[in-house]
Design a protein that fits this description.
Blueprint (H helix, E strand, L loop, with lengths): L33 H11 L13 H79 L24 H22 L6 H11 L2 H30 L1 H14 L12 H24 L14 H13 L8
Length: about 325
């Protein structure tokens, strides 16, 4: 193989080799008459003051305007030309440095992938070690996922396993103490423990426990308020029936009603009598049913009397 075509050997860069050195720098060496022109303009400006022009001098004003515009454009064009020429070396220098920095950053990015892969591997190993530590401390008996109390700082190399053990023990003790507090709500304990283990928020769980207690108390009060009304119904109905019976016409039948009304009352009595006998035989638990009965006032009075005599509780709405 021709030695001239052999690839250049790869060398390792040294920090001193990447230090920028300027071998020649001639800043401010541009010599022009720009300052003289500026001073000349400052001296001549009073001549071009607006007070020196009138309606009779329009032609001269136009000529002066054209002269000044041309001079300004010429100066600026020349400045742009000099600037491009003067900045050309710096532009080349700037481009070379920018390209070099890009090449270095690309190399850094590739190296960073190796470093991050190693960091990820290290974190996975640390995570497994922490999980094994938690198991050895009895975390599995807590009934809560370790992720609910997990701290990413545990994966840092600077965080020791000893400090992690201390934190896990503290969390186990805190959870146990909170569950012990919930035992004071014995009636709802099982429900509350499940809720607490989902959020690990004792205050929120206690608020929920109080809500359950308030709901039970409200239902209990509602049941107590309805009981007296049902127990007093027979005596009230009996009074109504007696009043109705006393006010019945003298020429009514033996029950204070005519034959048709008596037949309706007897039919009610037969049905209720059968139900009553069945209830006595079966010793059934009392039930509550609602009926809407359409009949005359006398027939309803007879029905209420019958229910009162047979200890059938009812409420007149």
């Amino acid at each position: 193989m021709n030695e001239n075509n052999a690839p250049a050997p790869i060398v390792e860069l040294q920090a001193s080799q990447l230090e920028l050195v300027v071998n020649e720098k001639n800043i401010g060496s541009l010599a022009t008459n720009a300052k003289q022109i500026r001073e000349l303009v400052k001296t001549a400006l009073p001549k071009y003051d607006i007070a020196n022009y009138s309606a009779d001098d329009v032609a001269k004003a136009k000529a002066d305007k054209a002269l000044l515009n041309k001079a300004a454009k010429s100066l600026n064009d020349k400045r742009i030309e000099f600037e491009k020429e003067f900045m050309a070396p710096f532009g080349e220098f700037k481009g070379i440095v920018a390209e070099t920095v890009t090449l270095i950053k690309e190399a850094v990015g590739k190296i960073d992938t190796v470093i991050k892969a190693d960091e990820e591997r290290s974190k996975n190993e640390k995570r497994e070690a922490v999980e094994k530590l938690a198991d050895s401390l009895g975390w599995g008996d807590v009934g809560v996922s370790l992720q609910k109390v997990w701290s990413d700082k545990w994966l840092n190399k600077s965080t020791s396993m000893k400090s992690i053990e201390t934190e896990i023990r503290a969390k186990m003790e805190s959870i146990a103490a909170d569950i012990e507090t919930l035992k004071s709500f014995a009636e709802d304990f099982d429900v509350l423990v499940v809720r607490y283990k989902e959020n690990l928020n004792l205050q929120e769980t206690v608020r929920y426990a109080n809500q359950l207690k308030e709901q039970r108390e409200a239902k209990a009060k509602e049941g107590q308020s309805m009981a007296p009304a049902q127990s007093s119904a027979p005596s009230d109905a009996q009074g109504v029936a007696h009043e109705t019976k006393n006010e019945a016409p003298a020429n009514s039948g033996s029950h204070g009603i005519d034959n048709a009304e008596r037949d309706a009352a007897d039919a009610f009595a037969d049905v209720l009598g059968q139900a009553s006998e069945t209830a006595k035989q079966e010793v059934a638990v009392p039930l509550t049913r609602r009926y809407e009965i359409v009949a005359t006032e006398e027939a309803l009075a007879a029905l209420e009397t019958y229910m009162t005599q047979h200890d059938l509780g009812f409420t007149i709405i």
